Sequence to fold (489 residues):
Amino acid sequence: MNKLRITALLLAMLSVVTVFASCAGGDQDTVGSADTTADAAVTTASPETTNIVYSAELPADIDYTGRDFTIMVYDESNATWYDVDFNATEENGEPINDAVFRRTAKTEEKLGIDIERAPVPGYGASIKKSVQAGDHAYDAGFVYTHGAVQLAEDKILYNLNAISDLQLDQPWWDQNAVEDLSIDNKLFMVTGDISIMYKKSLRVVYYNKALAVNYTLDNPYQLMDEHTWTLEAMTNMSKAVSEDLDGDGDRDENDRYGFVYSIDSIALGLIASGVEFASKDADDLPYIDFYNERTQQIWEDYIALFYDKEVADNCTATGHDGGAMFRNDQALFCCIELHNIEKMREMANDFGILPMPLYEETQEEYHCTINPHVAAMLVIPADNEDVTYTAHVLDTLGAESKNLLTPAYYEKYLKGKSARDNESEASLDIIFSSVRYDLGYAYNWGTLGDLPLTLVRAYKEDFASQYNKLLSKAEKALSKTIDHYADMD
Fold:
């Protein structure tokens, strides 16, 4: 055991961990299994804030002393999507780093193990090669969602629902992920408090508070609170600020827009509006019911904003840096991932953070979703020789992450360090409590998940005809997946 980690652990155990029980998206506000040690004490401070220490329920007679646990993580080859969940080697005063370090140290101390970080590119090839070679290189790992889908279909991953010792019903696992990502009651990927990587991929809407004031617009936070933060409201506000700043009669990166976005914003906007690329029946089997009259209407209303080149800048098509334009007061709204919050801190004017809008006021809930092209999912390789040991380690990591990592990211980093206003706290609560995982978008059967992105890239409108061309191919691919899963344990 690393002496630095032991020291950090002893210091951490002297303090009371304050956990906001509703932090993680999809988590239930319930206490994990009670531990008989002092660190499982539960005290209620107020209705909003609960002092809880979560602890995995483990057999009293386990002895893992001296064992290693190897977890595959993203390496540093990508400037944005690199491991932040296991990369801390010592404390340095940064909330995320120190929470990661203490979380890992406490897990190692509780189980008597050493957790080894194995950094590789995040696309799953290393796990596949390892399983096919039978070298048992990894006990668990993180793979981007589309990659995890492919690994599952290649029978490279272990069915998490088949591991009786893995406490998937506990609040350190995102219950929306547990429910949404299963097929035929088999689950090959999950996420939760153990990681903040997937949270960084959530699509949000940043808004320039100064521009909203200058143009005497409604306060979007008030609209959100009143359940009137809708696509129509966002569209009308966007139209109010668009301006040809240089007066040359052309719309380019030198002008001001109401809305700047990348093409995947359309898929995430549809999901935010309650559209599902694929639904599931009572037997947990997916089926495609993506297109209907409501989907068509939502599509038309979204592209009315997206295709209005006087108001919105499609940064994927134009090549403009939408984030930079937003920071330079050239956009009222910027639809981009949550990881961009650090760059937003560079702007002079204050900014706010909003969930993707409701489609209409009658919609009951906001819906936020991951970006499956990059969001990391936790997986267990199919050649794992001791899934009970792996389950005990992952549940301990998950519980300690709920105690330490999630509060550090949520309360100290997002709310305390990066966001600039108290109002963003309520917005972040909505964002993290409404995360959904759409199977159709994740599995992309017949490239149906790519369809709206492809159309928006080229400013095309013929959604219905293109959907009908792909439907047969998508249904065949889906049927193949269902048959494939039926043959799995």
Remarks:
- Residues 1-49 have pLDDT under 50 and may be disordered.
- The longest strand covers residues 68-74.
- The chain has 20 helices and 15 strands.
